[in-house]
Amino acid sequence: MTGDRFRKYDELEADEKEVLDAFRQMKLMSDYNRFKLYNFKVEDLINDYKQLKQLREQIQVKYFSIYDELIEEELIEGELDAAIWGIAREHENETWNSELQLMSEIKTNFDIAIKMIESGEADQILIDEENK
Question: CA quadruple 108, 109, 113, 114: dihedral positive or negative?
Fold first, then answer.
């Protein structure tokens, strides 16, 4: 190196600050739009999980209802072991809930980042970092 050092933001000329500010704003807007896009996608996935859980409940109710009718009509024999269904359903719910929790945490992080950009807090953090 030739002994040149990086200058802090406060040491820059006005036109240099203007260029740096413009690049920072472009980066923040790019991040903002990416966060909004993925926030939407994650939110859509969360809604799909909620619908999946509701659908699964409806299917189970319908399954037991039809199974009981078939037994009453003597079209089939045997008893339905609800415990097996309960175990399978519990496992499904645990899996779906853990996936849903992960997506909810990711969405929360996107929400925070979006608010920080909208409020100007992210911009100030970057300026503070440039002054170190």
Answer: negative
Tens of pLDDT, residue by residue over 70-118, are 999 999 988 877 788 888 889 999 999 999 999 999 999 999 999 999 9
Q: How far apart are alpha carbons 132 and 128 in whole angstroms?
A: 7
Q: Rounded to 10 degrees, what is the CA torsion of 124, 126, 127, 128?
A: 90
Phi-psi region of 129 (alpha: psi -120 to 50; beta: other; left: phi over 0): alpha
Token pair recorded at residue 109:
């992080």
Query: Residue 17 in contact with residue 9, Cβ under 8 Å?
Result: yes
Backbone φ/ψ region at 3: left (φ over 0), alpha (ψ -120 to 50), beta: left
> What three-state secondary structure class fits 39?
helix
Tens of pLDDT, residues 11-49 = 889 999 999 999 999 999 999 999 999 999 999 999 999
